[in-house]
Amino acid sequence: MDVWGLFLAEDARDFDDAVSMYQKDDGSYMLGVHIADVSHYVRENTYLDREALLRGTSVYFTDYTVHMLPEKLSTDICSLKENADRLTLSVLMNISKTGEFISHEIFPSVIRNKKRFNYKEVQEILDDQNGPYLRELNLLSQLARLLHDIRHKKGSIDFDIPEPEFELDEKGVPTYMRFKERLWSHQIIEECMLMANKTVARYIRKEKHKMPFIYRVHDIPEYERIQEWFSYMELLGIKVTRFGIPVTPGKFQRAFEEALHQNNSAFIKQTALQVMMKAKYATEPLGHFGLACKDYTHFTSPIRRYPDLIVHRLLKKYLMNNKPDLELEDHLDTVARISSEAEQRALSAQRVYDKIKQMRFLKTKTGEISEGIITNVTAQGLQVELRDSCIEGFVPLYSLKNDYWYFDDRNLTLTGRRTQSRYKIGDIVTVRIVQIDIQQLKAEFCLEN
Predict the structure, then answer these.
(1) Are 356 and 362 in contact, with CB atoms under 8 Å apart?
(2) What is the largest CA-CA distance in the chain?
(3) Structural domain for 231, as ranges
(4) What SS3 class is residue 278?
(5) H/E run at residue 363
(6) Cis? peptide before 285, omega within 30° of 0
(7) Helix axis angle, 184-207 relative to 134-154, nearest 10°?
């Protein structure tokens, strides 16, 4: 179908999603999420399919990408380019003017992307209230705020941890580091994709409840880890109201926001995220704690995630009322396990890559002075995170001269016996960057004054 209105494709290296929007006479919204139909080109059990399963996901680095699929597919044939007809799987959702879900349609389609914006362009149009597709963008923004508010009331947790990005010289050495800017336009698309993922999962559970499927699940965090987080907040001087069993998204959300109200830093967000269990793929709809919802899957990124590709295949099969093969359920269990493992490998690779770039960047700053926050205290010294870059380094005990230091392992403090100077978690300190060991991915600091 040649879809009217607005298409806003993701500002990325491959474009697998687009949206459409209009408002009905009764004031309700008609949101369309249209996703590249990769399953049309990557057929089941072909060499291409088996290789995609093993890779599991595309991995994005600053200067290159390890694609799950060949670039000819991911950046050309399947990519939703402007003014080009493309095969898609569409989800049309009718949502009331108060943000409540009314109905949906899911169907294979052919779309033509009328306009591809980047996030900054959309943000400028919304801020200036001037530009192409202004009415549709305003409707999308209105709906996104409604959906976000409803999610928040249900207990959905937004961590919004800043992601580093680097500018590299010709040798790959970072010359500049900053955090990616988070705009409201990013949130708009995120709300649209979340709604589409929920709608697809709910459709399968309610209307195709006996059919095998792949869900995205997130388990309840362990109560002991939450109590440890409460204790850590106390060491930081942050007062958070403790709660008991049962652990619910709403309870944790309120405690997390209570902490952020006192210290809205990336460090606090990271400590809360570490309490969470890892999200994974499963064949049962076990719910998603972080999003505070029962039904969730990954449908919106089949170019870069294998489970989304499988979800597309299953949807097309079930929309035709085809019965699943007897071996399908066992196969999906295998896909869920392999995809979860591949995701963790990709995340680990990205973390190591970022750490290497951070250390190489910091090496160019050797001798410079910066402000940091103490994130841990041990008998060996102080762990310090630089406030401007969130890069961690270590202040060894031997560099703390002119005193003998006593380590309190209960309160995690170092106290000077002669001067009675004390260092604890949460203290703001000024440090000098002493040396960087890129092989070990470690930075050594020393305290100034």
Answers:
(1) no
(2) 79
(3) 223-273
(4) coil
(5) helix 328-363
(6) no
(7) 60
Evaluate whether 384 touches 399 at the Cβ level (below 8 Å).
no
Long-range pairs for 375-378: beta carbons < 8 A, 24 or more residues apart: 375/267, 375/425, 376/412, 376/425, 377/407, 377/412, 377/413, 377/414, 377/423, 377/424, 377/425, 378/407
Cα separation, 105 vs 91, whole angstroms: 6
Q: Which of 248, 273, 298 is the last residue of a domain?
A: 273
- Domain identity same for 24 and 54: yes
Give the mean pLDDT of 149-170: 91
CA distance 227 to 107: 46
Q: Both tokens of residue 348?
A: 């680990």
Task: Find the helix packing angle between 223-235 and 249-262, rounded to 10°.
Answer: 10
Helix, coil or strand: residue 272: helix
Using alpha carbons, select from 54, 53, 58, 78 the residue that is nearest to residue 68.
58
Instruction: Provide the 8-state DSSP code for 77.
Output: I
Q: Note whether residue 9 is domain-resident.
A: no
Burial zone of 260 (CB within 10 Å; 0-12 exposed, 13-18 middle, 19+ buried):
middle
Residue-by-residue DSSP string for 221-256: PPHHHHHHHHHHHHHTT-------SSP-HHHHHHHH
Q: How far apart are CA 198 and CA 212, in angstroms?
A: 17
- As a whole number of angstroms, the distance between CA 317 and CA 322 comes to 5
On whether residue 12 sits in a domain, the answer given is no
Residue 262 inside a domain? The answer is yes
In a domain, 122, yes or no: yes
124 and 199 in a common domain: yes
pLDDT digits 0-9 by tens, 411-438: 899 999 999 999 999 899 999 999 999 9
- Cα separation of 175 and 393, whole Å? 19
Question: If you search the block for the tokens 């987080």, which residue do you land on?
Answer: 229
SS3 category, 2: coil
**Per-residue pLDDT reduced to its tens digit, 11-21:** 456 788 999 99
pLDDT, residue 1, reads 45
Quote the distance between the C-alpha of residue 120 and its chain's center.
Answer: 19
What are phi and psi for residue 395, nearest 5 degrees?
Answer: -100, 105
Query: Tokens 């290497």 label which residue?
Result: 356
